Amino acid sequence: MSLLEVKGISKHFGGVAALRNVDVQMTSGETLGMIGPNGSGKTTFVNIVTGHLVPDSGQLLFNEGSIAGTAPHRLAALGLTRTYQAVRVFGGLSVGKNIEAAMLLGLPGAPESAERNELVHWLRLDHRLASLAGSLTLFEQRRLELLMRLLQRPQLIMLDEPVGGLAVTEVREMIALLHELKARCSIFVIEHTMRVIRELADRVVVLMAGEKIADGPPADILRDRRVVEQYLGTTHA
Amino acid sequence: MNGRRLAFALALAALAAPFVLEGNRFLAFVFGIVMINLLWASGMNLLYGFVGLMPLMFAGIAGIAAYAMVALTREAGWSFWLATPVAAVGAALVGVLLGLPSLRLKGFYFTLCSLVIQTVLTLAFTFFPRFTNGDTGLNQIAPPDGWGGVPLAGVWFDATLALVATLGVLLSAWIVQTRLGQRFIAIREDDVLAEVMGIDVVRNRIIAFAIVSIYAAVGGCFYASYVGFVSPRSFDVLTSLGIWLCVAFGGRGTIIGPIIGTVILAPIPYLLQELQAFKDVLSGVLIIVVTLVMPAGIYGEIMRRRALRTAVALRAQAAGDPAGATATPAVAAMPGTVDAGVAR
Ligand SMILES: Nc1ncnc2c1ncn2[C@@H]1O[C@H](COP(=O)(O)OP(=O)(O)O)[C@@H](O)[C@H]1O
Ligand SMILES: [Mg+2]
């Protein structure tokens, strides 16, 4: 079943065309990667799908219903959520209070305390509950971000460069976590480094200057000469 | 510290004070004024300390309610006890309507917008004198009616104010630990993230605004009937700033902070009546001190130092005792977090 359907999305900022007539489809259970050089419109794409920005034109369907113009807090209740390229937690509150804030959504069937503890344990935040979220390491904050989303039982989580800024060993751990995350929800992941995409994604969309230039399994995309030349040729993959 | 016990002690002190001060009419009057300011400060704190918005039109909303209350009692012959709730609900509606355009703004921009609204309200009080009597003001405002038709006066009026202020503080302490209060705190900490976590930011800001407007309005009605005189200057931007200073100086985002701030600052204008110029200089200095030296206010500063000491003690303990080296580091009490001083 189609989980997310984005048809003909365009977005301009003044004279800059951040997205040009982009189509993206995702089915339930799929892990979709998005790559592209800096400034190619990846974050703008997520901003539009999650209700942070209004597109100039195009259609947005989630679970086959239109979500155009739907506010982010409504999307959270519908099961569509995101993380940010620059990590974002309630830095002035303790980890425990961050968890409480995530539970405020109050959906029926929200995780009971046993499941909550299991999630906290899985993301290795048990010993941090009393610490200020702002005092955690970047990797811990990224895990807290994931935890707060999972407590809201999302159907689709859109991750904007989840390994950005992490050390090499942490990247490996994060990839392992994201692998396990697949069992819990569908994932849309923006990445800069090819490695994450190759290991995680079932399918990849390549953006270039706001245009989709390729869409297919990672192995095929890596063989695509245009992508290799324009993208892998210009950045260190 | 046991929050409940402290709350009980403070409430008892407030309710007993009018009877202690009964012999000194001047001090009793200053006490009554402090109680009205305490009600105002605990309302302002809900918005400034817990939602993170600084409403400079606070006094304007209090003014709308006060003028409405006087009109309803004088011209329609209503009882104060009926006119006040009606005026409060009306002022809350007007406050929300006036606030609507600014509710999508945040931080400095919200404050600026609220300053404009306050200025317009002050001008309206002056230039539409039908209900306000313009700059001359309204005097001989009747006190509320007490038991058996006797007007409320003296110690019983003071005690009534103490009761109203106590209820206002307790209500704010209750609100901040409900789910609504937790949403307020999430919005204060990061409104974009709060929205993504499923919190309707604009709606919750409107709710906060309505609640705060009611605090402003009830305080305004009691102020008018207690002092017996109001003019546009009673409800100008300086009044808003004075209430804000009580909150910021004492410790925003805590329940005890605004109490400390109000008890210290609210009596000053009355006690230093002879030194008008000095009074203005003093509040200017205090604003600078709060902004630069103690952004978390007196109580926030106390909590910060206490947390530091705990952290140092824990480290010392960990150094002497290797088994304790893995102990969880103490949480630094951030200025303005809900943990800091909410009476429970
Ligand atoms: N809010 C905004 N205002 C103006 N320009 C923007 C805004 N957001 C993004 N852009 C521009 O749109 C283009 C795409 O940006 P972005 O989506 O952040 O790229 P990516 O995430 O792929 O690095 C860039 O040229 C960027 O400068
Ligand atoms: Mg980006």
Bound molecules: adenosine-5'-diphosphate, magnesium ion
The total strand number of chain A stands at 10
Percentage of residues in DSSP E strands of chain A: 25-35%
Helix content of chain A: 25-40%
- Which CATH C-level class of the largest domain in chain B is it? Mainly Alpha
Number of helices of chain B: 15
**Beginning-to-end CA distance, first to last residue of chain B:** 10 Å
The domain count of chain B comes to 2
Beta-strand share of residues of chain B: under 5%
Note down, in words, how this protein is organized.
- The complex is a heterodimer of chains A (237) and B (344).
- Chain A has helices at residues 42-49, 72-78, 95-103, 113-122, 138-150, 168-181, 194-200, 218-223, 225-232; strands at residues 2-13, 16-27, 31-35, 57-62, 65-66, 80-82, 156-160, 186-190, 203-208, 211-216.
- Chain A is an alpha/beta fold and 237 residues long.
- Chain A has one domain (30-47, 70-232): Rossmann fold, CATH 3.40.50.300.
- In chain A, strands 6-7-8-3-9-10 form a six-stranded mixed beta sheet, with helices on both faces. Chain A has a four-stranded antiparallel beta sheet with strand order 2-1-4-5, covered by helices on one side.
- In chain A, a hairpin with a 2-residue loop joins strand 9 and strand 10 (211-216).
- In chain A, helix 3 (95-103) runs parallel beside helix 5.
- Chain A starts with a strand and ends in a 5-residue tail after the last helix.
- Chain B has 344 residues and is mostly helical.
- Chain B has two domains: 2-295, ABC transporter involved in vitamin B12 uptake, BtuC; 301-343.
- In chain B, 71% of the residues lie in helices and 0% in strands.
- Chain B has 15 helices and no strands.
- In chain B, helix 8 (179-189) crosses helix 10 (201-227).
- The radius of gyration of chain B is 21 Å and the shape is globular.
- The A-B interface holds A 50, 71-73, 76-77, 81-82, 88-94, 97, 100-102, 104-106, 127-128, 130-132, 135, 148, 152 and B 179, 182-183, 185-186, 189-190, 192-201, 328-329, 331-332, 334, 336-339.
- Adenosine-5'-diphosphate is lined by residues 13, 16, 18, 36, 38-44 of chain A.
